[in-house]
Automatic annotation (TrEMBL):
<feature type="transmembrane region" description="Helical">
    <location>
        <begin position="799"/>
        <end position="826"/>
    </location>
</feature>
<dbReference type="InterPro" id="IPR038550">
    <property type="entry name" value="GPCR_3_9-Cys_sf"/>
</dbReference>
<keyword id="KW-1015">Disulfide bond</keyword>
<dbReference type="InterPro" id="IPR019588">
    <property type="entry name" value="Metabotropic_Glu_rcpt_Homer-bd"/>
</dbReference>
<keyword id="KW-0807">Transducer</keyword>
<feature type="region of interest" description="Disordered">
    <location>
        <begin position="909"/>
        <end position="962"/>
    </location>
</feature>
<feature type="compositionally biased region" description="Polar residues">
    <location>
        <begin position="1013"/>
        <end position="1022"/>
    </location>
</feature>
<feature type="region of interest" description="Disordered">
    <location>
        <begin position="974"/>
        <end position="1022"/>
    </location>
</feature>
<dbReference type="Pfam" id="PF00003">
    <property type="entry name" value="7tm_3"/>
</dbReference>
<feature type="compositionally biased region" description="Polar residues">
    <location>
        <begin position="1138"/>
        <end position="1149"/>
    </location>
</feature>
<keyword id="KW-0812">Transmembrane</keyword>
<feature type="signal peptide">
    <location>
        <begin position="1"/>
        <end position="18"/>
    </location>
</feature>
<dbReference type="GO" id="GO:0004930">
    <property type="term" value="F:G protein-coupled receptor activity"/>
</dbReference>
<feature type="transmembrane region" description="Helical">
    <location>
        <begin position="616"/>
        <end position="639"/>
    </location>
</feature>
<dbReference type="GO" id="GO:0030425">
    <property type="term" value="C:dendrite"/>
</dbReference>
<dbReference type="GO" id="GO:0008066">
    <property type="term" value="F:glutamate receptor activity"/>
</dbReference>
<dbReference type="InterPro" id="IPR017979">
    <property type="entry name" value="GPCR_3_CS"/>
</dbReference>
Length: 1176
């Protein structure tokens, strides 16, 4: 391995020599001794850019070069003369010029190593020649250690080479942080602190004057790069921003420096401070560029120890450097060195090979007769010249001397360890082992020339102490460095009055001004952290730090100084607040009104108004309304768990009770009306009884109750804090949206159902005004709840909104549905009668058997009224009415022939109808209805219903042309082709006994007068019915007066139309056509006579037809009145008898067909309906 290293070094040496043929010859200063210490000093400036490849060094340097060389020589003299330090051992040195350049320093280091290698291989100091002969030339002694170099980048290159050969190195000014890494630079040590401490000192200065926005420049190389990296890292932690960082070589040309200064100028006026981690010559290049660009006074330079207090940096550019603050390693001047140095003369100082060159350069003269005479100087140096003129000691002179002493003390400790009690070098130290020397050096501890303790830590670094220097104009055109502070172990001390004559003169270097109270810094996009925009915190936020606003938790609010949060007082509705007062008053009034209405309904429970309103359901509705008003009190009370339970129950259950009953009621009406629109004989709807209605309503209510109980299990009621706004806290019940929407959703379904049924029944007859009131209630309720939903979920006043919504809904139901009834009960008792709820001014009358297969669907128009097989149709007169009829059919019970007369009065603008059913029983075998007379014609031919002759029978009284009972059926004459015949549409008189012999030529004839009148003068049936319909308007009284008016008796008037159904004359019948809702039932009719009715001859004079023989049924007495069934649709206000309802069925509905002249009605009547006879 050693041979490989030797070969590599030799090859490198040959290459170096070959490439250096054109370069200057290297000069070496040598001092003999027992132990040789190598030293690398920058005797000359580094090569310029155009001379780098030639490695030609620059001019000679005094402070960094000649003074350090002389310090080395003189310090070794002092050490050798000290009997306590390395006794009987002489230290020598070999000093080489590094030119502050890595290539030159590496070349010189190789010379150190070559000498060491050769020395270690020779025996007794003799060198053998190539031909094998011996030589008396004694080689140089090996180098045991190296002092220097000064530059960090050069020191790193040298250390990479020296550590291969275990040669310790002690630096006096290399401060790069990289050199502290012992894994890379094991044999490196230094008596100066690391750049990390210097960077810390620079950051502390920037912080002291609040320079938060600075530019940065550093020298290309390890010193500047590592130092600036440390400065940036520390600045970022302290909130100091770097506007921009630039690097440049210290020997760069003018253009490079000018370009750099222009970049720095672009950050003005914000970044006026330039932190410069630079070597001295880099700073000088900046000053020169500032003069060229006229930027003097625009910047303040903060320099590192590379500038320190060096005059060679500022000479000639003091104006540009004024105000600069620099950091200098604390190293007092060494007085004994000045005493030695200032006495040196070129004539006597011959051991320093560069001293004559330096003398000529320093005084700009030539030394005549000297070996190194420089002919470029014209002036000859005289003997009066002295170094005291403008003398400035090297700022790092103490560190150079301390480094030399460190090496001496290390050797001393090693000698004491390896050669105890022996003065001089013992065999154990021959040759000196670099590893053992390194261990001794790491343990070195002594007092330096400045009085400070010199020691090394585990990284080989020494503690740092710095002086803060300020370059100022002391007098006119006189500038100097003054000490304005110090930095020791992290503590900065500054004399601000010395730096700034006035505080107003303190330079500001900030990107953004500090924010005011309650504001934070918002970093602009793409900018550094020190460039911000001040933004105020939100009203519920406090300043957590300078960059962050932190929101207070719900229920708290920022303090006045915006540094924290305080709790917000909890609020809840109080009885004395305006809104609760209004809600409570409204609820109390509604509650009183509800109780009043309930009392009225209980007191008048048996009146038609109450009974027709389904009073049981009304009580449920009133209970729900009352509960709705009571909800207000639970909602406004201070929230407690019990009130939370009551709120959920009341809000969900109160509307459910009201609307469940309304759904039941409206559904019932809708089903009744749907049945009424079908054929005459309709099947009675199911579940129409009061009990069934109550069961349905309670089922709907129980569904809501089940929903509420389920929500109790899922979300148990409790109190919680609500935050309608960030600054408000309310104590409320923990009802979630699910707990509100689910019960209200079910109630909404009930409301929609009510509204649907109310809409379907909106056009019911006038006596169904309650359906219209329900419809109006539902429409209004829908509007209220549609308004409630957005207000509730979008408002902060949910409780008050809920109170008024529930109360308004209850008020609408109370006002629209119950107030009109209470008004009729209390203010209009004359309207509280049965007829007001069973009749209408719009009539629909049916007469017939009422079977589902009846010919109601086959009604004909007025034009086809006499068509036997006329199809269904309708003829509208000018006033919008119609008349229909249906033909005869056999009854399913007995041998009766039922006929139906249907008179429909249907207004175009109001399609409501009223039906009054008039059944006409007729038997073709044994029964007859009222013979017009007993004779063959009674002289008038007024046969009221016979087809054969039968005079002598009584005739109905003459009621004029309006009397419908005067209608008879005769043969109908049709022109060819002959039409099919069918029974006549109306027959109020029985057929004659000889109806079996009736011919096809029988024609119907209409007699409005007794039989004495001719058939030609008696108008047709169509004309009479048309007259009735035409004259009938909105009032049924005219129809009543026409049908029930008294007529003059005609022939045969002495007998009633039908003796089987005559009412005793003492019974007074009503004078109007009605269903008689308010009239008590008539007593049963006793049939006193069984005489056969007489028959009259037809007006055409046909053969007389005898009446049929009286059968046993005719003589038996009473007819079967149950066969006379009034087939009317069931009443919407009550149930029929057949339904089993407890509600009384309607009284007898009677109407006269044959009206006598006497007020006592002895005509044919119909009574004892088995179904209710009410109007729709």
């Amino acid at each position: 391995m050693v041979l490989l290293l030797i070969l590599s070094v030799l090859l490198l040496k040959e290459d170096v020599r070959g490439s250096a043929q054109s370069s200057e010859r290297r000069v070496v200063a040598h001092m003999p001794g027992d132990i040789i210490i190598g030293a690398l000093f920058s005797v000359h400036h580094q090569p310029t850019v155009d001379k780098v490849h030639e490695r030609k060094c620059g001019a000679v340097r005094e402070q960094y070069g000649i003074q350090r060389v002389e310090a080395m020589l003189h310090t070794l003299e002092r050490i050798n003369s000290d009997p306590t330090l390395l006794p009987n051992i002489t230290l020598g040195c070999e000093i080489r010029d590094s030119c502050w350049h890595s290539a030159v320093a590496l070349e010189q280091s190789i010379e150190f190593i070559r000498d060491s290698l050769i020395s270690s291989e020779e025996e007794e100091g003799l060198v053998r020649c190539v031909d094998g002969s011996s030589s008396s030339f004694r080689s140089k002694k090996p180098i045991v250690g190296v002092i220097g170099p000064g530059s960090s980048s050069v020191a790193i290159q040298v250390q990479n080479l020296l550590q291969l050969f275990n040669i310790p190195q002690i630096a006096y000014s290399a401060t790069s942080m990289d050199l502290s890494d012992k894994t890379l630079f094991k044999y490196f040590m230094r008596v100066v602190p690391s750049d990390a401490q210097q960077a810390r000192a620079m950051v502390d200065i920037v912080k002291r004057y609040n320079w938060t926005y600075v530019s940065a420049v550093h020298t290309e190389g390890n010193y500047g790069e590592s130092g600036m990296e440390a400065f940036k890292d520390m600045s970022a932690k302290e909130g100091i921003c770097i506007a921009h960082s630039y690097k440049i070589y210290s020997n760069a040309g003018e253009q490079s420096f000018d370009k750099l200064l222009k970049k720095l100028r672009s950050h003005l006026p914000k970044a006026r401070v330039v932190a410069c981690f630079c070597e001295g010559m880099t700073v000088r290049g900046l000053l020169m560029a500032m003069r060229r660009l006229g930027l003097a006074g625009e910047f303040l330079l903060l320099g590192s120890d590379g500038w320190a207090d060096r005059y060679d940096v500022t000479d000639g550019y003091q104006r540009e450097a004024v105000g600069g603050i620099t950091i200098k390693l604390q190293s007092p001047d060494v007085k004994w060195f000045d005493d030695y140095y200032l006495k040196l003369r070129p004539e006597t100082n011959l051991r320093n090979p560069w001293f004559q060159e330096f003398w000529q350069h320093r005084f700009q003269c030539r030394l005549e007769g000297f070996v190194q005479e420089d002919s470029k100087y014209n002036k000859t140096c005289n003997s009066s010249l002295t170094l005291r003129t403008h003398h400035v000691q090297d700022s790092k002179m103490g560190f150079v001397i301390n480094a030399i002493y460190s090496m001496a003390y290390g050797l001393h400790n090693m000698q004491m360890s390896l050669c105890p009690g022996y003065a001089g070098l013992c065999d154990a130290m021959k040759p000196i082992d670099g590893r053992k020397l390194l261990d001794s050096l790491m343990k070195t501890n002594f007092t330096g020339v400045s009085g400070d303790m010199i020691l090394f830590d585990e990284n080989g670094d020494s503690p740092g102490r710095y002086e803060i220097m300020n370059f100022k104009e002391m007098e006119k055109d006189y500038f100097d460095y003054i000490n304005v502070g110090s930095w020791d172990n992290g503590e900065l001390k500054m004399d601000d009055d010395e730096v700034w004559s006035k505080k107003s003169h303190i330079i500001r270097s900030v990107c953004s001004e500090p924010c005011e109270k309650g504001q934070i810094k918002v970093i602009r996009k793409g900018e550094v952290s020190c460039c911000w925009t001040c933004t105020p915190c939100k009203e519920n936020e406090y300043v957590f730090d300078e960059y962050t606003c932190k929101a207070c938790q719900l229920g708290s609010w920022p303090t006045d100084d915006l540094t924290g949060c305080d709790l917000i007082p909890v609020q809840y509705l109080r009885w004395g607040d305006p809104e609760p007062i209004a809600a409570v008053v409204f609820a109390c009034l509604g509650l009183l009104a509800t109780l009043f209405v309930t009392a009225v309904f209980i007191i008048y429970r048996d009146t038609p108004v109450v009974k027709s309103s389904s009073r049981e359901l009304c009580y449920i509705i009133l209970a729900g309304i009352c509960l709705g008003y009571l909800c207000t009190f639970c909602l406004i009370a201070k929230p407690k768990q019990i009130y939370c339970y009551l709120q959920r129950i009341g809000i969900g259950l109160s509307p459910a009770m009201s609307y469940s009953a309304l759904v039941t009621k409206t559904n019932r009406i809708a089903r009744i009306l749907a049945g009424s629109k079908k054929k005459i004989c309709t099947k009675k709807p199911r579940f129409m009884s009061a009990c069934a209605q109550l069961v349905i309503a309670f089922i709907l209510i129980c569904i809501q109750l089940g929903i509420i109980i389920a929500l109790f299990i899922m979300e148990p009621p409790d109190i919680m804090h609500d935050y309608p706004s960030i600054r408000e806290v309310y104590l409320i019940c923990n009802t979630t949206n699910l707990g509100v929407v689910t019960p209200l959703g079910y109630n909404g379904l009930l409301i929609l159902s009510c509204t649907f049924y109310a809409f379907k029944t909106r056009n019911v007859p006038a006596n169904f005004n309650e359906a219209k009131y329900i419809a109006f209630t539902m429409y209004t309720t829908c509007i209220i709840w549609l308004a409630f939903v957005p207000i509730y979920f979008g408002s902060n006043y949910k409780i008050i909104t809920m109170c008024f919504s529930v109360s308004l809904s209850a008020t609408v139901a109370l006002g629209c549905m119950f107030v009109p009834k209470v008004y009729i009960i209390l203010a209009k008792p004359e309207r509280n009668v049965r007829s007001a709820f069973t009749t209408s001014t719009v009539v629909r009358m049916h007469v017939g058997d009422g079977k589902s297969s009846s010919a109601a669907s086959r009604s004909s128009s007025l034009v086809n009224l006499w068509k036997r097989r006329g199809s269904s149709g309708e003829t509208l007169s000018s006033n919008g009415k119609s008349v229909t009829w249906a033909q005869n059919e056999k009854s399913s019970r007995g041998q009766h022939l039922w006929q139906r007369l249907s008179i429909h009065i249907n207004k175009k603008e109001n399609p409501n109808q009223t039906a009054v059913i008039k059944p006409f029983p007729k038997s073709t075998e044994s029964r007859g209805l009222c013979a017009g007379g007993a004779g063959s014609g009674a002289g008038s031919g007024a046969v009221a219903g016979g087809a054969g002759a039968g005079g002598g029978g009584p005739e109905p009284p003459d009621a004029g042309p309006k009397a419908l009972y005067d209608v008879v059926e005769a043969e109908e004459h049709f022109p060819a082709p002959a039409r099919p015949r069918s029974p006549s549409p109306i027959s109020t008189l029985s057929q004659r006994a000889g109806s079996a012999g009736r011919t096809d030529d029988d024609l119907p004839s209409l007699h409005s007068e007794p039989a004495a009148r001719s058939s030609s003068s008696q108008g047709s049936l169509m004309e009479q019915i048309s007259s009735v319909v035409t004259r009938f308007t909105a009032n049924i009284s005219e129809l009543n007066s026409m049908m029930l008016s008294t007529a003059a008796p005609g022939p045969g008037a002495g007998a009633p139309l039908c003796s089987s159904y005559l009412i005793p004359k003492e019974i007074q019948l009503p004078t109007t056509m009605t269903t008689f809702a308010e009239i008590q039932p008539l007593p049963a009719i006793e049939i006193t006579g069984g005489a056969q009715p007489a028959t009259a001859a037809p007006p055409s004079g046909g053969a007389a037809r005898e009446p049929p023989a009286a059968g046993p049924e005719a003589a038996a007495g009473k007819p079967d009145l149950e066969e006379l069934v009034a087939l009317t649709p069931p009443s919407p206000f009550r149930d029929s008898v057949d339904s089993g309802s407890t509600t009384p069925n309607s009284p007898v509905s009677e109407s006269a067909l044959c009206i006598p002249s006497s007020p006592k009605y002895d005509t044919l009547i119909i009574r004892d309906y088995t179904q209710s006879s009410s109007s729709l």
